[in-house]
Input
Amino acid sequence: MSIPGLRIIGERINPGFRSTKALFDHDDFAGIQALAVRQTEAGASYLNVNAGTKALSDPAFLIEMIRRIQAVVDLPLSLDCPDAAILTRALETYDDAKAKGQKPIINSIAESRWALHEALAVRPCKVVLMSSERLGDAGVTPNRTGAEVHGSACSMVERLRRAYPQMSNDDFLIDVSVATLAADAEGLIKMALDGIRLVGADPALKGVHIMGGLSNLSQHLPDKALDGSDLKHQLECAFLTVAMPLGFDTVLGTPWRGYQLLPKDNFVLQQFCRIVELEGSDALAAVVGLFMEDA
Output
């Protein structure tokens, strides 16, 4: 069962998962359809569709995949392709009647690929906006503070609403880019949480959705925490426990992960809250303390 108020964009139709890549390699559309159905039955609100480099070398594969998925599920799709021409074809293929009239999501637009916004002229869409970078006098640079994340979100929403006045705040999903905890010596997870807080509290952004992918969070960590619990799953839940009260409401994730909010005395939650306040070697040493004594 999912957390009330949390929407899940099913992430599994993506060649980053070895089992899904095998389906792509063999043009196994029946297997892809089964994966779409499984995510739908597990509670996804949207399905992300990412054909990876195969979409670039064989655009017809992506187009056929969209048709096959929409033949078996009625969820709206999140279309993930960095090529504007192929994304346009994907949006033209999408049949909103087969998604109960719901708009597709463009995943995603960022300052470094701003030209993708032109695909919004194809049909009404929602759009994921990557707030981890900003456009300044020196060009596009990574954000390093929550204030910069908030500033990027404000700037992109304002520019798109001027260009497409039919869009409302409900059409925007601000992706705060959740970093990998085991490699976060620069406070990027704290940046994301601060950004969530500022976006969530901004009256001008009332109604936007705040999201992120949790798959990266626990990479390079062992399966078990020091207290014997499932470390990777608990870390994802810890992030949600902290982030949802700040306004985070959408996760790009696996629907059957069983996300839950953790009690205040949960070991992993307590350690996570301590770690995100640290930087440099102190942060990395504290991460080791999640699974090793005397760290």
